[in-house]
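Form 7-S
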Amino acid sequence: MADLLAAPLPAKIALITLFLALAISVVTDLRRHLILNAVTVPALVMVLSCMCWLGGLPLLTYSAGGVLASAGIPALAALVNSRLMGWGDVKLLAVCGAVAGGAAGWGFALMLFVYVSIAGGLEAALWLLAARLRGRERPKYVPYGLAIAAGAGYAFLWGGVLF
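Output:
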């Protein structure tokens, strides 16, 4: 918490933007099975603007590397089959990657993606278990926004850099 309080204003704005986007996206994904463009696109623009304000083109480049590390594989999955990964999930991961890349480089953004993947696997297993215990069919939709928020929260609060 002390690090956040000591951070420059653009860094604080980027983190607050990220966590607001995550919170809103969890709610909309759980309720409506959607992660809204009206949340993710402005959040990504705000975060990238903050990175540019904070460190100019070099930090913007680190942030872009974070976007690629966090959202690259999910974007390929969404291209192959949009039922595997929705584009809202990809854009939310891009926001996470932009902040992570700007904060600590692509290695941290890649680690964030690993945490999100682990959270997603745990979430899917719990949804399958809940369906089985209730005697229902397996769920057709698992709201990945929750896993993105859990993995990103873990990465920023307790995670470390992979490389």
